């Protein structure tokens, strides 16, 4: 069967989502590559739970689908990165609050309570 690999490339200021097809043999819980490794992932086996989500890698973030669906791939990337942005903002606010607490905190010496 065919799997569709959408990889987000950000090179030299140009962003694009590249589509590649890969042949796979369907197993009970996985897909196994027929031709070595899967495009953009450099692995031979893909768990079925990884279909339709962003697979983050050191090279390219990739979405794998069982049918070609360019719009779904694009929306999956957008949702993923919006989630990261939201989490980043939450962490930044928390960091700022803790930093302010540390700067304003009074050092109090206490005797051991043992």
How does this structure look, described?
By secondary structure, the protein is of the alpha+beta class. A hairpin with a 3-residue loop joins strand 2 and strand 3. A six-stranded antiparallel sheet has the order 4-3-2-1-6-5, covered by helices on one side. The mean pLDDT is 85. Helices cover 31% and strands 32% of the residues. The protein has one domain. It has one helix spanning 70-104; strands spanning 2-11, 14-26, 30-33, 45-47, 54-55, 61-65. It contains one helix and six strands, in the order ββββββα.
SSE order and pairing:
Elements: E1 2-11, E2 14-26, E3 30-33, E4 45-47, E5 54-55, E6 61-65, H1 70-104
Antiparallel strand pairs: 1-2, 1-6, 2-3, 3-4, 5-6
């Amino acid at each position: 069967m065919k799997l569709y690999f959408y990889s987000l490339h950000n090179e030299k200021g140009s962003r694009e989502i590249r589509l590649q097809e890969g042949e796979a043999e369907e197993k009970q819980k996985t897909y196994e590559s027929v031709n070595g490794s899967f495009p953009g992932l450099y692995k031979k086996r893909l768990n079925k739970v990884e279909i339709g989500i962003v697979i983050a890698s050191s090279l390219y973030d990739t979405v794998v689908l069982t049918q070609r669906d360019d719009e779904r791939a694009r929306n999956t990337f957008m949702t993923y990165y919006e989630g990261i942005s939201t989490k980043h903002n939450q962490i930044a606010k928390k960091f700022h609050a803790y930093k302010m607490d540390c700067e304003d905190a009074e050092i109090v010496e206490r005797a051991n309570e043992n």
